[in-house]
Amino acid sequence: MLGGEPLGRAGLALLLMAAGAGARPRPAALGGQPRSSVVLVVCDSLDGRLTFFPGNQTVDLPSINFMKRYGTVFLNAYTNSPICCPSRAAMWSGLFTHLTESWNNFKGLDPDYVTWMDIMKKNGYHTQKFGKLDYTSGHHSVSNRVEAWTRDVDFLLRQEGRPMVNLMGDRKRVRVMEADWQNTDKAVNWIKEEAVSLTQPFVLYLGLNLPHPYPSPYAGENFGSSTFLTSPYWLEQVTYEAIKIPKWSSLSEMHPVDYYSSYTKNCTGEFTKEEVRNIRAFYYAMCAETDAMLGEVISALGDTGLLRKTVVIFTADHGELAMEHRQFYKMSMYEGSSHVPLLVMGPGVKEQQEIPNVVSLVDIYPTMLDIARIPVPQNLSGYSLIPLLHVKAESEVSLRRPRPSWVLSEFHGCNVNSSVYMLRTGKWKYIAYADGCSVVPQLFDLTADPDELTNVAIKFPVIVHSLDKILRSIVNYPKVSSSVQKYNKQQFISWKQSLGQNYSSVIANLRWHQDWLKEQKKYENAIDKWL
After folding, report:
1. What DSSP string describes 219-249?
2. CB crowding 111-149: b at 16 or more within 10 Å, else e
3. Which GO terms describe its cellular component (predicted)?
4. 422 within 8 A of 430, measured Cβ to Cβ
5. What is the domain count for the chain?
6. Domain boundary residue among 390, 422, 438?
7. Are residues 525 and 381 in the same domain?
């Protein structure tokens, strides 16, 4: 940071001018050149639609704009599971969620799983990680687990605090999310002190918590994260007039799974337009702070002359609904939750390119190996992004598996009372649930209805049938849903047994305690009935 402030748009531009063309990533052929270093910055909960028009009108994101100017932005990049741990498990393994069996925020990859970073290390890359990883099992609260396991139980309980905003500090308060800034500082110092003198290529990973909402202790001892918190400094980067107030269906018209999500997320009460606008504005301000951290990393690469030989990738584990569809958080296949940012710049990457192809986070694994010129295993769910990014090397592209015209996302965790599968292809988004029969599917035409307000599944039965057929060719989803149900029941039973006498008091005091304690016996009976 120069003088305590993050580099703004002007700062990044000046940096490049000062360093001359030397700091700019140079288009280079893959062969013959030394292997590029890679920097991957992954934030948490950034809605990918903010990285291009019209979403980018709401908030100033100079570092993202810089990456677009000197690199490529993907217009249709998706998470493979819209929640932290399962999404990251897909990104680090290159495999879909039903293959990693990362069913909820507690269950990810085994700690000794071989990731793309391990393979790059074996193949001569110096590797370094800072910040949030969250792709192995064992993280997140007991509440998170129990809520996921009991989602088939016939009860409805609020599991989150009501979403709210909190303004802290004054216009001088830049470093709001201190832990993220400290990790950014570590990455910047590592670039300036270590990376600059390495003789081998490196891969650096920086994981940020922002713009994930903050914990809400006001909601009692087992609180969730429903507070959108920022300072006036970042709020000033937001254009209030450009903020869209989302349209909501009435509660009675909502899809049954959406209703369950909205209720468990404590969003079925009354919200004024001003409340909704503020939640969205504060969320965008948190995105601006995230963007500044990305800018610090890019600036450090520029200052050290490493930018021209480094591929920089920026993405997120999932998005944030920010009150669209009467929900906050993720755990949904709607665009706000499932659409992620994906920007790439560096040697050989086309500048000012917008790519419309659908891609997803499992593509990171083969892309990393491709950059490192390591043969890509054939069993991966993902496909390298290099053929889309590069100033085309025809001979090289023809040898590859053809990229499919669809992406898959799935969800099996808390706040949603069914396994959910999303197939995104062309202008369509098809969402199937559970066994494919017991819950009605959804079909959205994203060209005609970008806000996903009209389910046209009944109107287009032939399209539903053909998309369902494609989905079933990728994943036997009724079978997966059934195995998740069995897993949930087994996990719950062993957890219950481990508590012995304490079971009743422990289950009553999880995040749903405010509702549970009103009718304790009723909810315990519902669980017994389910078991």
Report:
1. G-SS----EEEE-HHHHTTB-GGGPPPPP--
2. eeeebbbebbeeeebbebebbbbbbbbebbeebbbbbbb
3. extracellular region; lysosome
4. yes
5. 2
6. 390
7. no
Can you read off the two tokens belonging to residue 530?
A: 């389910």
Instruction: Give yes or no for residue 7 having a pLDDT over 90.
Output: no
DSSP sequence for 357-407: EEEEGGGHHHHHHHHTT-PPPTT-S---SHHHHBS--HHHHTTSPPPPSEE
CA 392, CA 399: separation in Å to the nearest integer? 13
Confidence of residue 141 (pLDDT cuts 50, 70, 90): confident
Q: Does some domain include residue 426? A: no
Beta strands in 208-335 (DSSP E): 227-230, 310-316
Residues 94 and 271 sit within 8 Å (Cβ to Cβ) = no
Residue 335 lies in a domain: yes
- Is the per-residue pLDDT at 21 higher than 50? no
Give residue 144's identity as a one-letter amino acid code. Answer: N
Q: What amino acid is encoded at 421 in this protein?
A: Y
φ, ψ of residue 418 in degrees (nearest 5):
-170, 150
Q: Which tokens is 522 given?
A: 């009723």
Range of the domain at 51: 37-390
pLDDT at 286: 98
DSSP string for residues in 342-360:
EEEESTTBPTTEEEEEEEE
**Burial degree of 414 (CB within 10 A; 0-12, 13-18, 19+):** buried
**What is the average pLDDT across 408-437?**
97
Q: What is the per-residue pLDDT across 468-520, written as a single tens digit (0 to 9) for each?
A: 999 999 999 999 999 999 999 999 999 999 999 999 999 999 999 989 999 99
Tokens 């293959």 -> residue: 99
Question: Catalytic residue numbers?
Answer: 84
